[in-house]
Amino acid sequence: MGLQGWHLVIIVILALLLFGAPKLPGLARSVGQSLRIFKSEVRQMKDDDKNPEAAEETVEGKIVDPDRRENNA
Q1: Do the Cβ atoms of 28 and 34 come closer than 8 Å?
Q2: Where are the alpha helices (DSSP H) in the chain?
Q3: pLDDT in tens, 4-27
Q4: Helix axes 24-50, 5-19, angle to 10 degrees
Q5: How many CA atoms, within 13 angstroms, populate the side-chain half-sphere of residue 38?
Q6: Hey, is 65 helix, strand or coil?
Q7: 44-69: pLDDT as tens digits
Q8: Do the beta carbons of residue 24 and residue 15 sit within 8 Å?
Q9: 3-class SS at 72?
Q10: Residues 24 and 16: beta-carbon distance below 8 Å
Q11: E strands within the chain?
Q12: What's the CA gap between 66 and 73, in Å, rounded?
């Protein structure tokens, strides 16, 4: 039981009734942007899984005394 052509027509008509024609392009744009972000995050997670050494790298830094930093400003 897959989506047939008339199912799609009913969904489009319901979307027009619920959201109105002027709001649909903005809604479609935001859904597309959300999907692109989701895909890039999934791709990044897969890349991190393939390269575990990069995820375990440590970063060296200096400890800064907050009192000295405020006096120098």
Answers
A1: no
A2: 5-19, 24-50, 52-55, 66-72
A3: 888 888 888 888 888 887 888 888
A4: 110
A5: 6
A6: coil
A7: 988 887 876 655 667 788 887 777 65
A8: yes
A9: helix
A10: yes
A11: none
A12: 11
